Q: What sequence folds into this?
């Protein structure tokens, strides 16, 4: 991909990280780790890949995005706000009573959310149904967590997707190695994740899920195989972008203390400035 185009997507992803920090600033807390590990992928989907109309979020022929691991929703809200689905002032209502953007996504509160998620293990089943109904008309993209793979319902949905040859369905597994309470490998190990999906009949690829270049490269080649759903095992870093929080389970849910938030904001804004300077 052309360098400037990639840099623009990278700076957009950082602006979306800044939007997440704004939500944390106004509410005092949030699921930081998982939001920051998948936000590069969510940015690429909305700003590069998906057929959508921010001014008409319920346009019938739109591609669908499902955040199966609903606790990562600050990433989606941040991207929707950046893309113009709603005014950025709404970010300041995150998690508050009556908000459009609660701690887990609610399709009845915000247009642009396709399903209520948060109870892990349901997004892929919903996506199967959507992909089946939309075959030939639209594409369906799902983000799942690696810890989420422990839910058995995912594997029933994975079998069905292959059985029905849903090649308009793409799943990203946000493989950050951590879930709420520690290492996924120790809690319920699904490594090698790629081999599991392959065994169910999926086309599979591993990428660095925090590299815009690799994300765009794989998006350009979808579906990886005609007649098969695609699983992209995205190797990511939990809390990617906040150096003191990266790769630590304790930043799964974050209530910033002792200047942490200010430090995170400074780091994020410095990165935005640095990438913006590189854009010619
Ligand atoms: C059915 C169900 N069981 C347990 C939980 C509690 N829970 C919330 S987030 C989470 C960890 C998910 O880990 P992962 O999918 O790796 O996402 P990440 O923490 O990396 O964002 C758990 C167990 C839940 N939301 N739903
Ligand atoms: Mg995880």
A:
């Amino acid at each position: 991909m052309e360098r400037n185009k990639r840099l623009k997507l990278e700076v957009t992803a950082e602006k979306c990280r800044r939007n997440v920090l704004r939500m944390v600033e106004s509410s005092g807390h949030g699921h930081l780790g998982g939001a920051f590990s998948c936000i590069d992928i969510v940015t690429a989907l909305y700003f590069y890949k998906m057929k959508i109309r921010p001014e008409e979020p319920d346009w019938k022929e739109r591609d669908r995005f499902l955040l199966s691991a609903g606790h990562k929703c600050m990433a989606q809200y941040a991207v929707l706000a950046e893309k113009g689905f709603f005014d950025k002032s709404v970010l300041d209502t995150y998690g508050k009573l009556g908000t459009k953007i609660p701690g887990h996504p609610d399709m009845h509160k915000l247009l642009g959310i396709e399903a209520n998620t948060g109870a892990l293990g349901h997004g892929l089943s919903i996506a199967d149904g959507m992909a089946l109904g939309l075959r030939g008309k639209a594409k369906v993209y799902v983000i799942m967590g690696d810890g989420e793979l422990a839910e058995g319902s995912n594997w029933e949905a994975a079998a069905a997707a292959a059985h029905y040859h849903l090649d308009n369905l793409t799943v990203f597994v946000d493989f950050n190695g951590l879930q709420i309470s520690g290492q996924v490998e120790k809690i319920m190990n699904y490594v090698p994740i790629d081999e599991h999906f392959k065994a169910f009949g999926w086309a599979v690829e591993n990428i660095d899920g925090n590299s815009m270049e690799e994300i765009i490269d794989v998006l350009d080649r979808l579906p990886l195989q005609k007649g098969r759903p695609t699983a992209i095992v995205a190797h990511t870093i939990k809390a990617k972008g906040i150096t003191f929080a990266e790769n630590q389970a304790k930043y799964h849910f974050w209530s910033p203390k002792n200047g942490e938030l200010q430090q995170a904001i400074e780091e994020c804004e410095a990165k935005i400035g640095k990438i913006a300077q590189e854009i010619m």
Summary: Residues 49 and 188 are 32 Å apart (CA to CA).
